[in-house]
Specification:
117 residues, globular, binds zinc ion, five-stranded mixed sheet, alpha+beta
Length: 117
Amino acid sequence: MKRIILSTLLTLTMFNLFGQKKSDTNKSEYKFKEAENTACFVCDHVLSKQRPILYVAHDKEDGSWQFLCGQDDHTEASAKIISLKNATVIDTTINDLYEMPLGVGAERKFASSGVDA
Ligand SMILES: [Zn+2]
């Protein structure tokens, strides 16, 4: 009986070790200098994860961030305001843009599209 418990513990420990790295990369990261509750604009496609974030802008007027799908089919109702922290939870890769200066917009295209390359 004791032996079974031991091996169960061992398995759990190993699972944790292996899971560690995975959870580190999957864990929500937050690199931005701004407060986590900084308001940012997303479109409803991004919010609902229907589409990836392909357009990012850092407004030089008020310092606000925009994370949009980059397509043109938006109405006023498409604009949603969430916290910057929430945006990084939707897509952790936007953390890479934390040093993006004010007044700069960035567009990215996924390699899978292969059309514009
Ligand atoms: Zn959109």
